[in-house]
Amino acid sequence: MEPHDTLSPAQVDEYRKNGFLVQEHVFDEEEIELLRAEAAQEFASGGERVTVEQNTGIVRGVHGCHLYSEVFGRLVRSPRLLPIARQLLRDDVYVHQFKINAKRAFKGEVWEWHQDYTFWHHEDGMPAPRALSAAIFLDEVTEFNGPLTFVPGGHGSGMIDADVKGEGWANTLTASLKYSLDVETMRGLIERNGMVAPKGPRGSVLWFDANIPHSSVPNISPFDRGLVLITYNSVENKTDVTRGTRPEWLAARDFTPLTALQATSF
Ligand code: SIN
Ligand code: MN
Hints:
The chain has a single domain (9-250), classed as Jelly Rolls (Sandwich), CATH 2.60.120.620. Helix content is 23%, strand content 20%. The chain has helices spanning 9-18, 29-44, 70-75, 82-89, 116-124, 183-193; strands spanning 20-23, 50-52, 59-63, 93-101, 111-114, 131-137, 149-150, 163-164, 179-180, 205-209, 214-216, 227-234. It has a seven-stranded antiparallel sheet with strand order 1-10-6-12-4-3-2. Bound molecules: succinic acid and manganese (II) ion (MN). Residues 114, 116, 214 line the site of manganese (II) ion.
């Protein structure tokens, strides 16, 4: 494993310019096997934290695992993640949201174009886009298994007006997203900046900005595309719990700054 405690100045510049950054070989095979086994248990746990694909009823994702699983509770405090989240957000951080998206072979459905901050602002009362996500690859991500796709530099447009579908928070989790970006908006952004779908081996980490427009196509390959997505928020950017509508497993209520693990397990 290469040292990954903080990013180099060139990596920070790349992240600020593009709104995302990939690091390969952050977690080794043994660690990924442990995370995959724990993810399988979470998928099988049933209950309100598990969401399913609309067309087939197979598992789409599970939220809030860091609150229930000791392994994922340790992962969010990893010395390979936490110092980088702090470095990029220039502050102490806590976990606002945690999810594992399954994107199963043949069955994993679309994620429409959106910005995460729109959800965190409207649904959870997050005051500013001082948050980011780390996506940990539980499988190799290829052009065929529904990679996350970004408009490089698109975070520079700030929060863009979105099409709003439906009431309540249930469709903040489904393929038909509550806040999605329309075709004219996306055409303008993509004509200017293009699209990039970062690929990489399992164990990679993909960092991305709260305001970067992103999507992912259905998984037409015979291989799953599992991702653990951890959203860190600056402790100065606490959500307004009086405005928040979503349960704690979807939007944190505990703003205690995280401390890095001392042990080497994650
Ligand atoms: C997300 O937009 O938060 C996740 C999309 C995906 O898993 O492809
Ligand atoms: Mn998203």
